[in-house]
Protein 1
Amino acid sequence: MAIVVRQDIRMGKGKVAAQVGHASVEASETIRKENNELWKKWIEEGQCKVVLKTNSEEEFRELQLKAKRRGLPVVVIRDRGLTQLDPDTVTCMGIGPGPSKLVDEVTGHLRLL
Amino acid sequence: MAIVVRQDIRMGKGKVAAQVGHASVEASETIRKENNELWKKWIEEGQCKVVLKTNSEEEFRELQLKAKRRGLPVVVIRDRGLTQLDPDTVTCMGIGPGPSKLVDEVTGHLRLL
């Protein structure tokens, strides 16, 4: 699973961590329902996660489209805006879990957060 | 759900986020299996997460015991130590989801990460 975090909005370390937590659970739940075998494999192999960053909302949207076109599960996390952000701000997205080759095709050029 | 992150070890922002992601999925899975009604409620209400910090391993262990004594689910995350940390380093723990009163009794004095 790759989790892509927006760096063009201001979020503290704890905020980022919570958003990545949301994306992790959402992505896990999605695949648990849609492809239970793949989900079990992902859990058993240590529920691998790579946290990456993007510097623009435009790139974020492109990554989202790319991942969808390859049939990868994509979950987009929006913040309720009770603390640091405006309501409904997109903060991060989970891509996968899925075949490493496909996930790499979409996110391989991004830098680690 | 409260996620308590150790601040006495050095972890980058992305590392912390990934560890919190692990704790989120582990804690969610634990409660999904043990108390499906509570899990559904937690998911439907937006899978609330608060990310907190502790400055010592000793306090971390005390919190773990306190939470267990109150019957709250506790998941402790260890890092495989492939990058920034020694193998098997405890990085964070998930407490709950559970009744806010109980979670607050254990973690209410901690500061946000």
Note: Chain B has one domain: 2-108.
Protein 2
Amino acid sequence: MITDREKHFMYLAIEESKAGMEAGDGGPFGCVIVRGDEIIGRGHNRVLCSNDPTAHAEIVAIRDACANIGNFQLSGCEVFCSCEPCPMCFGALYWARPDRIFFANTKRDAAEIGFDDAFIYGQLEIGDYKARQIPMVKMDMPEALMVFKKWIEMPNKNLY
Amino acid sequence: MITDREKHFMYLAIEESKAGMEAGDGGPFGCVIVRGDEIIGRGHNRVLCSNDPTAHAEIVAIRDACANIGNFQLSGCEVFCSCEPCPMCFGALYWARPDRIFFANTKRDAAEIGFDDAFIYGQLEIGDYKARQIPMVKMDMPEALMVFKKWIEMPNKNLY
């Protein structure tokens, strides 16, 4: 059951998507992050205006929210996305760990207007990294593993 | 066949991972992006020092590279990651579209030192979003679809 409260925040995310598109900042995507009834972060796609392929609405809003609350975790928060998150934003949301994620348009809707989320979801499903479209090359580097061992042994490290 | 050139750039990515860890900036992950033999972007994990859960080495390096070349696409570039990218960074790399991705440590190695990449990969494999650990709620919002329709109809838009 969707409440009026949830519709209210989703309308704000949709407003963000529209404002960003009309400003020419990037694609038509918006995001609002709330803790209780307080908006702690918001954003829209800024890929074009910032030349930053990672500046999707959710990433912009997560960075804004985390900066505002001084924490890299969003537990106790809810995220309202005008469109179902792409794999990059899905991963970012899982690292940030909000309590719930609401979305309106779907990845299929996004594909229909030319955004390739569905393609990237498909690439992730290919378990063998060698079979993916962007070639991935595994290099055996003992030096890299050595850094991981040092991390394990490091005293007083912040676990996260 | 891995060349000395490729090993050289991977060593630099590993150096980034070590420097970031020792500075307390975040986990032991580094990334270097090159175009030909020129380094155009680099970064290490800065989740802890910037309170930004999206500040993985690859994201930091992609943003650095794109800012340096003034483009949101990395075609013609190669990316050297000290560890196999997590789903967030995998998505970011697919949006940036470099020619090749090299990695040293694997997501299994990362899981062994406490980084949950494998868990997020698993969550993405769950096709039904309702069955995932962070609850996702679909809201039917004609207003959101209307913004997508406006995008399609918008003249002179930058397609990307």
Note: The helical segments of chain A are 4-23, 47-50, 57-69, 87-96, 107-112, 117-125, 142-153.
